[in-house]
Model the fold of this input.
Amino acid sequence: MPDLVVPHVTKWSTEHTPLSKVTRHRSGRGIAYVDETIGDRDSQGVLWARANLAPQVGRPLFGQVHPLRQRRAMRRLLCQVCGGLADRTDDGVLWLLPDHRDDWSGWPEDMFATEPPICRPCVDVSTRLCPALRRSHVLFRSHVHEIAGVRGPRYRPGKRGVVEDGLVLVPYGDPLIPWTLAHDLARELRACVIVD
Done:
């Protein structure tokens, strides 16, 4: 049996998300963990989902992304498959995503991406093994790809604490971002060029 290819950002069955009670922040404007530590927030003050690190232990949970590895890959522009540096040229960083050009004119320009970029050697493996990419995919470069926001569950005040209120993609600076528990870091992709 050939070696199983598991993307770097994939969550493993032993990487549990610790049960951390989310409550209303003492300021009343946003959420916090009851037992919050300094490492639970990013430099913008956004609360991040917790998860222990145990890569390659247990079984891979394809389709589930580990929040810390995804965040690191997006911050450092690492390949989502191998974890090495993503491919870069003068035209920009290489991205491989399902094809959504029919969804809006100009896609992927101005898109908020939560999927990290990719390196050239991992393109063929990804398009061959990933079911979503086998159906359709686009390879493109973005010359501008600034960190722009987060995706995760948003909370709202409830009668007893806070209540989860759906999954959202929120830009930094949005007044409701303090109510979002970040799971994925997003970059806004601009100056995009489709690659053959």
